[in-house]
Amino acid sequence: MEHGNSTEVTEFVLLGLSQTWEVQLFLLGLFLLFYSLILPANVLIILTIHKDPHLGSPMYFFLANLAFLDICYCSVIPPRMLADFFSRRKAISYRVCLAQLFFLHFLGGAEIFLLIGMAFDRYVAICKPLHYATMVNRGVCWALVVAAWAGGFMHSIIQVALIVPLPFCGPNKLDNFFCDITQLIKLACADTYILEFIMFFNSGLATFMCFLLLLISYGALLVWLRASSSHGKSKAASTCVTHIIIVFVMFGPAIYVYCRPFRSFPMDKVVAVFHTVVFPLVNPMIYTLRNREILSAMKRLLDRSGLWKGK
Questions:
Q1: Which SS3 state, helix, strand or coil, does residue 150 take?
Q2: What percent of the chain clears pLDDT 90, i.e. is strictly above it?
């Protein structure tokens, strides 16, 4: 059976995280525990921001969208990975593999653009507070969110458009627990040197440039706050530090994966787990634990629902 004119491979075999049954059981229990704790917490963040009128500022609007994006992102790879723990042969069809690749880059790209929008929000709030209400109104917020999703879609569709014409006619084993361009392109029965170079610019270099842009912008804001005597600069500085932490947490694994030749390295699977499973759900939690307003709003919401017995 062929896909297109020259592709004979109709499915790929995922080698997974480990071939040892005991290790697989341990990882299954660990990931299930992690999801049972962190996933509801992210849903609670969205509900809290939506329900509490005190959290109506653009910063919290973007945080709710970030939490929603991270939940979607963690719905692409982990469910299939958890199901594969129960399968002796971890096979994934060609089309499902492409779907994984598309949504992984679609949601990941959207999150990068959303973080840039959040940086713009902090810049206006700190440097132009008198114009904040007009420059970052509800319409602008929605435009930035829609632009983030559109940017992620454009980035992802380019990745898929470059992969689809490739012929796959030989080995079909992927030494990982999901499909991504870094593993898939190595199985193609064609010279992919130029293609890897294009994908490096589309994923690796673009990610690194966004990383530098965000670091420079938040660094400049911290320097401006240090020299300023404005009221509330301590809280603003704390928010900027939180954003910088998120930038490192999100971009670190992405830079490791895409800003190098598409070759196998010993730490690939470990970084992939943090990149696709752990860090996305942790991102909104870092914002929440460093923000007393959200914590207080959560307690009020849980208290009204009868799930929290605060003093």
A1: helix
A2: 25
